[in-house]
Design a protein that fits this description.
0% helix; 54% strand; 150 residues
Amino acid sequence: MTDERLTGLWSDEIVHPGSVESVDLAFRDDGSGWLYWSSWSTEFAVSRFTWATPGELVLKFYRNLGGTWSIENGVTRHDVESDEEEESVLELGYEIAPGEDPFGNPVTLLSLDRPLDEHLAGSRFAWVEKPESLSDPSADAPPPDPSSRR
């Protein structure tokens, strides 16, 4: 059984506004998902996973992408510089509960029992009410240029 309350987009930017880094965590209803870390330095990392909730939240990571992002004509562009397979599984306790953002506005919070340190993420995320998309932000990025690898 899958906990449908997770389906959607969660962000730590709502919990930590003004931070130089942010993390989005997406759970799609087909059991796929992604974690997107980005920094004001224009670096990004995407970790793709499958997920299930047989009691705990089980994330099976299978691919990591990294590179830089830029904004061109109001559109964010991702240049993938690394694309690697990953085989790791995390089993996490989690809680979804009402809470408040730093300004006192009501939000729904996802709290994990430990930070996702391996993926540059913390343990608290707020529900994004109307996400633009549940697609991985780097999904349309061109693959890395093999001639640029060292």
